[in-house]
Amino acid sequence: MKLLNYKSALFIFSLMLIMSCDPGSEPIGCTDETRETFVMPTILEDYFGMYQEGNWWVYYNEDSTKMDSLFVTDYEGIMEIPEFGCVQYEWKNYTINAKHLASNDRVLKATIEGSSCCSWRVIWAYQDDGGFSISTREKNNSIVLNFFPPRSEIVDSIEINSILYSNVLSIQTSASGDRLYFAQNIGLIRFKLSGEIFNLKKHQIQ
């Protein structure tokens, strides 16, 4: 009997040790209350966290003969729970509505997905062609950005309508040179489309 108990205890201990060493297994006792939630890193949240229903942005071209307005619909927040690990990720999907930047004929969809604390991506993609993807990765204990298409950068500053914006994301979205400019805590402040530039005039973020 003692030998049986010893073997049983050894088996249980070995099983627990294997499970604890397996990075893909879900810990024993994981519940919705103890599950760790990951959201997109601050470096992305600062530029894209404001895209929610109820917020809006208004733009004019350089000679003020054309206006465009941008707002969000079809917003969906998803708690993605992987098969293993006591974690979950806050994913988001939404549609960008606008007259010139996007339209019924050229729908612009946005997706935000993550698979770890530091591995996330933001995608703005037209259903026909074009758009961009930004992903994050950890490097030397910090989070860095990767762009696609690669002809994108962070600009030190841009002045629009006498307002100076710092650390602006300048993102190329097509081979023809279309480009979007994002400022921290505001979102899209300028876009270049078919050679024409539209600048942010006013906005509301709740």
Plain-language structure description:
It is a single chain. This protein has 206 residues and is mainly beta. The protein has two domains: 1-30; 36-204, no CATH class. Helices cover 13% and strands 50% of the residues. The protein has helices at 2-21, 42-48; strands at 36-38, 56-61, 67-80, 87-97, 108-114, 120-126, 131-139, 142-148, 153-160, 163-172, 179-183, 187-193, 196-204. Strands 1, 2, 3, 4, 5, 6, 7, 8, 9, 10, 11, 12 and 13 form a 13-stranded mixed beta sheet that branches. A hairpin with a 6-residue loop joins strand 10 (163-172) and strand 11. The longest helix has 20 residues, at 2-21. The chain is globular, with a radius of gyration of 23 Å.
Q: Which geometry do the CA atoms define?
A: globular
Roughly how many Å is the radius of gyration? 23 Å
Tally the helices: what do you get?
2
Number of strand segments: 13
Catalogue the unreliable spans.
9-25
Measured between the Cα atoms of the first and last residue, the distance is 69 Å
How many structural domains does the protein architecture include?
Answer: 2
Average pLDDT score: 87
Give a quick account of the main beta sheet: strands, pairing sense, barrel closure.
13 strands, mixed
Task: Please trace the helix and strand order, writing H or E for each element.
Answer: HEHEEEEEEEEEEEE
Q: Give me the secondary-structure category.
A: mainly beta
Percent of sequence in beta strands: over 45%
Tell me roughly what share of residues is in helical segments.
10-25%
